Each structure stands twice: as C-alpha cells, then as structure tokens.
Amino acid sequence: MVKVLIADDHTIVREGLKQILAQSVDLSVTGEAANGGELLEKVRTGDWDVVLLDLNMPGRDGLDTLKQLKCERPKLPVLVLSMYPEEQYAVRILKAGASGYLNKRSAPEQLIEAIRRVSSGGKYISAAMAEKLAFELETNFQDALHNSLSDREYQVLCLLASGKTRREVAEELSLSVKSISTYRARILEKLRLKSNAELTHYAIQHGLVD
C-alpha cells in the first residue's frame, strides 16, 4: 500500500484527490496539510511514501517548501500538482528535487500513474513535456536569460506575462504590490527589457506563456 500525504490549501481539492485515489486499492491517503509549514511538520513526525504538493499555497512558497522538504527527507518522492502549465515550471520543479510534475487539469488516470511511478523510484512528466525538454537541450536552453531569475522572480514573470496586473499578482502570491514592483524591476534588469510589453513578448518567444 502506497501511503500518500496531500498538501493543498483548498479543502475541496484535497477531498477530490482523496476520492480519485480511493478508486485504487494500492493507494491510501493517510495525511493532509493546508500549507507549507504544516506539511513540513507532518513530514518530520510521520511516514509517507509520496507527497502530493500544490505549488501555490499561502504562506511559504511551494518551491521553497519543496527544497526544504528535500533537504530534510531527500529520499521522499514529491509529485507537484499545479494549475500552471508544465512549460512554465516543470524544469525548475525537477531541479528543486521533485520526482514529477502534473497539471491539475490532467486526467485522474494520469495522477494515479504518476503516483505509482514516483513511489517506485521513477520520474514523471508528460510525453509532450519530455519532447519539449529534449528540444530545449538542443537549443542552448541553459543560455536563456530567464534561467538567471530566482524562483520568485520567475513566478512573477510568468504571471505578469500572462496579463495579470501587479495587484492581481500580489494577491495570488500573498505579497504586497510594492514587493511585486520590486520583483518586476529586477526581472526587467536581468532580462534587459524596458516594459511589460517587452516582457510579455519575451515570455511568448521562449514558450513561457501561451
């Protein structure tokens, strides 16, 4: 039996995930957490085979939580679930130590397959993402300027480029508008850009947004 710990700040999402996993006799949800801090406390005191981690929870950032979790429990497989497209975050998530990345719009069968794969020591990304990664490795992906951004700066870049205002981004990330403005200024400097229009063009050009 694979013991699963679900970390998501939405109760309805956790309940939905439990219902999906209940259909498989080899999977059992034995723990829940509503934020990063709660997840880390549970991992320190309990025993699980897989963690399902939502990337965007209030309080501690999902990527920071992932990195801390992997520092404390390096062998514990983590499957990240997110509403963000794979092309935006999969590479950073895997580099941070996750065993897989799955969009929340994926079919229940994909979720079950992903949990089984990472619990047995494997990695999980979609076939489309695997093809994209292979292509990027052939086109000097490491030279892209956005790879110099911090995780938070990258997150702000993707949200601004998707058309959200600074206030909307601040609300989504539980930060102040002033903080978002500061991140935006750093992003423009690192990417050698001058405006939101150029930022959006850059993101589209590099496949970071649709």
Tag the structure with descriptive keywords.
210 residues, alpha/beta, 5-stranded parallel β-sheet
Provide a compact summary of the structure:
By secondary structure, the protein is an alpha/beta fold. The chain is 52% helix and 13% strand.
Question: What would you say this structure looks like, in words?
Answer:
The chain has 210 residues and is α/β, with parallel strands linked by helices. It is 52% helix and 13% strand. The protein contains ten helices and five strands. It has helices at residues 11-21, 36-45, 62-72, 86-95, 108-119, 127-138, 151-161, 166-173, 177-191, 196-205, and strands spanning 2-7, 27-33, 50-54, 78-82, 100-103. The chain has a five-stranded parallel beta sheet, sandwiched between helices. Helix 3 (62-72) links the parallel strand 3 and strand 4 (78-82). Helix 8 (166-173) crosses helix 9 (177-191). The longest helix is centred in the C-terminal third of the chain and has 15 residues, at 177-191. It is globular and about 55 Å long. The N and C termini lie far apart (39 Å).
The structural class is: alpha/beta
Could you report the average pLDDT, rounded to the nearest whole number?
A: 88
- The amount of beta strand, in percent, is 5-15%
Query: What sort of overall outline do the alpha carbons produce when their principal axes are compared?
Result: globular
| Secondary structure: number of strands | 5
Strand order of the largest sheet: 2-1-3-4-5
Largest sheet: 5 strands, parallel
